[in-house]
Amino acid sequence: MQILKDSFGRTFPYIRLSITDVCNFKCGYCLPNGYQVDKKDNRKFLHLDEIKRLSKVFSKLGVQKIRLTGGEPTVRKDFFEIIKILKNEAEIKKVVITTNGYHLDEKAKMLVDSGLNGINISIDSLDRNTFKTITGHDRLSEILRGIQNLQDLNFDNIKVNAVLLKNINTSEKDFDTWANFIKKNKVDFRYIELMRTGDNLNYFNKYHVSSKIFKEYLDKNNWIYQTFGKDAGPSLNYINPDYRGKFGIIAPYSKDFCRTCNRLRITSRGDLRLCLFGNTGISIRHLLQKDDQINELQDLILGQMKFKKESHYLELGETGLTKNLSTTGG
Fold it and tell me: Residue 71, preceding bond cis, omega within 30 degrees?
């Protein structure tokens, strides 16, 4: 079997598949003015048949895990049908999602029943007012109910992500609040260092802070670094025997961050992106129209791997094609 491998010896068992650019939140670091229709790109989002062909090809190339992202992936009316296709027809072993948790309390049982293998939920603060300020929505309580509902249904692969924002959610009190949460809940919490994109330079300059401040907190409180598996994401994980959950750090500006890269991205309109912040992207949608195009599609994807760069070069201020995180799935 041919597998996805780049010129640096990295293999890619993990795909992040954006199924929509639409998001119903207004997070300051991503879509402060809410979702805006891109008038320069009137292509529709990938439809079910295209997603089916795409996922089957990636399965043949050794992909074991697909993460559905957006925008907010659950806004698609055929969202659960997409999960079914990935699990049953493409035979993807792990199907996970990243979500803002909108109506998670109502969707929890449907998510579990769908066969979903994991969920990442964005919660930038456990303080109701801070959460509302960041997202533009007063929905923290329904999201926390959703997490409880998932746990009541014995769904235990739950992760929570928060973007580290200077002077907003970076105090020792904030860290302690999350520590108390994961002490009681089997939930892995990760802080993500704020990343600069094409349209957030002023926001980035105001709110970016190094993830070292959280690492120092972990070191001071006796958290132990844990290695990760071959299909894991970029999180540096920490464990403590007294806690049910784990802490993690995603630090894109750290040295060697890209050394263990194991994922590629597909945009909601069918572009292959070799890197979240890369300058190159190629449309593969024209090869998703018929079943007999599978071999040609496979060859095109394999051929693109030689163009994957060693690093994203974010530390040099290069943001590539990523205007905002909703366009590429974060």
Answer: yes
